[in-house]
Design brief:
Immunoglobulin-like, Neutral Protease, domain 2, five-stranded mixed beta sheet, alpha+beta
């Protein structure tokens, strides 16, 4: 035992000597990083939203002359990474240079975008330096919106300007309450930090949007950036119970589903409207008109995006809201939460998730919902029920009696009776459908507007798109008890959930 121990000690000593005497032991740490004589003395950036970003750098080289510089920059997930050769002016041992990155027009970068970049330099002696990567987030630096103030709670941060601290405290409390309610509905809450930007005027807000954005939009969410923006004139603004929960729902829903890109727009927007604490009567009115004229949009047409036409977009919001409300009432909140959780698994398609959790795919869900509203089906009835099998005819014994005339007479009588029965059924169905449409219109019209017979509904608003446009909101302002309304403690899906 002792001999073996001596051998082990000798072997260990030889290994230590080999390690200590090796060239690597005497090599300085970070040799590669310190091998270049080029050093960076300063780096700065300046955001001039929405037009451009200036990036400046200073570098020196005591051995050679710096002859070349480049900038590698990544602005957002929507734009490709860019590599620019940056002019350095006069070659020398010390240089300073600036690059102006254009962010206007098609190069638009929304506020809150995470920008990463790094510099690279070459000198006359053949040395190079790859600088360390730098990061910063863009902000809306326009004079109308500076300086921004901010408060945070948990994973939520609210940003505002031109209002006192008490305004920010109210915004933070209101947003926190919204997040709690939305999380209870969706079955999960925030996973990553989010930023909520609150603009004072609709003009300030529109100036933060990309060129070509719908001019009637009054709130926007960027799930990939975990950012949302709304307009709030005051702490009693009705947008706080409409637009704020709407945009926050988008952020939470996309975090729960891993920012999956193939989610149906109607489901995404339907959840957002469903979670609003206030819904203007005009939206129910627009939906009632679509029911009366049987002009509901097909889900296939609002799965990828909503129409650019204001009236059709408004109908798409109303329709999506009604369908999501139907889903919660029919399937219950636990199943809906299960569905949202499963949508985060990209190994299965959206249709497969619907089928596995709800028992119906998107097409059959649409058909079931339309029949519930007494609207035309989208799946023929013979595809919903098994087709009867053909009956094998029984062979009759031959007879010498001529029965052809009696047979023809019987067939004629059956045809007459069948035609009369069909006519009666059609009349009864028409009357029933008219009554059902009228009842549905009354149910979906919380403002209590009256209709006479089949008279078309007259719009009280000039442009349905004002749903998302605060300054042009044509509906009456919500009552004072709605402006700071709390979410219902006992929503429909909690009253009678169905498994």
């Amino acid at each position: 035992m002792r001999l073996r121990r001596h051998y082990r000690l000798l072997l260990l000593a030889l290994c230590l000597c080999t390690l200590l005497l090796s060239p690597a032991a005497f090599a300085p740490r970070h040799a590669q990083a310190s091998s270049s004589p080029i050093t960076v003395s300063s780096r700065t950036y300046s955001v001039h939203f929405p037009d451009y970003i200036d990036l400046s750098v200073s570098a020196s080289d005591p051995i050679g002359m710096i002859v070349r510089a480049s900038l590698d920059i990544d602005l957002s997930e929507n734009l490709a990474r860019e590599l620019h050769s940056v002019p350095i002016g006069k070659v020398g041992h010390t240089i300073s240079t600036t690059w102006r990155e254009n962010t206007s027009g098609s190069n638009f970068v929304p506020p809150g975008s995470q920008v990463s970049y790094y510099w690279q330099f070459w000198d006359s002696a053949g040395n190079t330096l790859l600088d360390t990567q730098q990061y910063f987030a863009t902000t809306d630096t326009r004079s109308c919106c500076n300086p921004w103030q901010r408060l945070s709670q948990g994973l939520l941060e609210v940003n505002w300007y031109n209002r006192p601290l008490d305004f920010g405290r109210v915004m933070l409390a209101q947003a926190s309450d919204s997040i709690k309610h939305i999380s209870s509905v969706l079955g999960g809450g925030l996973i990553h930090p989010i930023n909520l930007w609150i603009y004072e005027t609709i003009d300030d807000f529109h100036g933060s949007l990309a060129p070509g954005a719908y001019e009637w939009v009054g709130g926007v969410a960027f799930p990939m950036l975990d950012e949302a923006s709304i307009v709030a004139v005051s702490t009693s603004d009705h947008t706080l119970v409409r637009d704020m929960p709407h945009e926050l729902t988008h952020l939470i829903f996309h975090q729960l589903t891993g920012n999956r890109i193939d989610l149906p727009t109607w489901f995404d927007e339907g959840l957002a409207v469903y979670n609003q604490a206030y819904h203007e009567p005009d939206m129910s009115l627009r939906f009632s008109k679509a029911l009366q004229t049987q002009t509901l949009l097909r889900l296939d047409d609002i799965s990828l995006d909503f129409p650019a036409d204001a009236d059709q977009a408004y109908l798409a919001y109303a329709e999506s809201w009604n369908l999501v409300d139907y889903m919660y009432s029919t399937f219950g909140q636990p199943k809906m939460a299960h569905l949202i959780k499963d949508l985060g698994n990209t190994l299965t398609s959206v249709n497969e998730d619907f089928q596995q959790v709800l028992g119906v795919d998107e097409l059959h869900l649409e058909n079931q919902w339309r029949l519930h509203l007494h609207q035309p089906w989208v799946i023929p009835p013979d595809q919903l029920t098994p087709v009867p099998q053909a009956v094998t005819p029984v062979k009759q014994n031959a007879t010498t009696v001529d029965t052809s005339s009696w047979l023809l007479l019987g067939l004629g009588v059956l045809l007459v009776v069948g035609a009369m029965s069909t006519l009666v059924v059609l009349v009864l169905f028409s009357v029933r459908r008219s009554r059902a449409a009228a009842a549905q219109a009354n149910t979906a019209n919380p403002a209590g507007r009256q209709q006479q017979g089949n008279q078309a509904i007259a719009y009280p608003y000039p442009d349905p798109s004002t749903y998302m446009h605060t300054s042009m909101y044509a509906s009456p302002a919500p009552p004072s008890d709605v402006q700071n309304q709390e979410y219902p403690a006992n929503p429909p899906w909690k009253q009678a959930p169905q498994e």
